[in-house]
């Protein structure tokens, strides 16, 4: 029986998460996108804590424009928060989503904001 779209994404996510992990020195930037919104958070997997988070639902993020433009704004917002928290280098976790469109725009926005990955 064929796998559904969600089951395929979860299978890819498990495979990627077996290879990457975040720490307090090198946190994992996890991205989640729904049909309307996009969310990003920096996670320390060793302690099980979220260090910094940003989403398209926050007031500080400019939510005008296309969803791709909003994703880039979220990337810049999380980069600004991370730099303020003293984080410069991260590991990118696309969470099973294809690195294309909104996920790529968020990553590019985070790079513009000063994060290295």
Task: Describe it.
This protein has 117 residues and is an alpha+beta fold. It has 3 helices and 4 strands. It has a 4-stranded mixed sheet. A hairpin with a 4-residue loop joins strand 2 (38-44) and strand 3 (49-55). This is one of the proteins that bind and probably mediate the attachment of the 5S RNA into the large ribosomal subunit, where it forms part of the central protuberance. It comes from Chryseobacterium endalhagicum. InterPro entries: Ribosomal_L18 (IPR057268), Ribosomal_uL18_bac-type (IPR004389), Ribosomal_uL18_bac/plant/anim (IPR005484).
In short:
With 117 residues, this protein is α+β, with helices and mostly antiparallel strands. The chain has helices at 5-17, 67-84, 102-112, and strands at residues 28-33, 38-44, 49-55, 91-93.
Features:
117 residues; ribosomal protein; single chain; Ribosomal_L18; Large ribosomal subunit protein uL18; 36% helix; alpha+beta; globular
Major sheet characteristics: 4 strands, mixed
SSE pattern: HEEEHEH
Structural class: alpha+beta
Shape: globular
Distance between the termini: 38 Å
> How many beta-strand runs?
4
Mean pLDDT: 93
What is the share of helical residues?
A: 25-40%
CA gyration radius, whole angstroms: 14 Å
Which residues sit in consecutive blocks of at least 5 with pLDDT less than 50? none
Individual helix count = 3
**Range of strand content:** 15-25%
User: What strand line-up does the widest sheet have?
Assistant: 3-2-1-4
Pfam families: Ribosomal_L18p
Protein name: Large ribosomal subunit protein uL18
Keywords: Ribonucleoprotein, Ribosomal protein, RNA-binding, rRNA-binding
GO cellular component, one term: ribosome
């Amino acid at each position: 029986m064929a796998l559904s779209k969600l089951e395929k994404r979860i299978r890819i996510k498990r495979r990627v998460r077996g290879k990457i992990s975040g720490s307090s020195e090198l946190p994992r930037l996890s991205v989640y996108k729904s049909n309307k919104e996009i969310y990003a958070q920096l996670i320390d997997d060793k302690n099980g804590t979220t260090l910094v988070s940003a989403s398209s639902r926050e007031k500080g993020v400019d939510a005008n424009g296309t969803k791709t433009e909003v994703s880039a704004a979220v990337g810049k917002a999380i980069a600004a928060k991370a730099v303020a928290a003293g984080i410069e280098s991260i590991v990118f976790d696309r969470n099973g989503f294809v690195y294309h469109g909104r996920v790529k725009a968020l990553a590019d926005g985070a790079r513009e904001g000063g994060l290295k990955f």
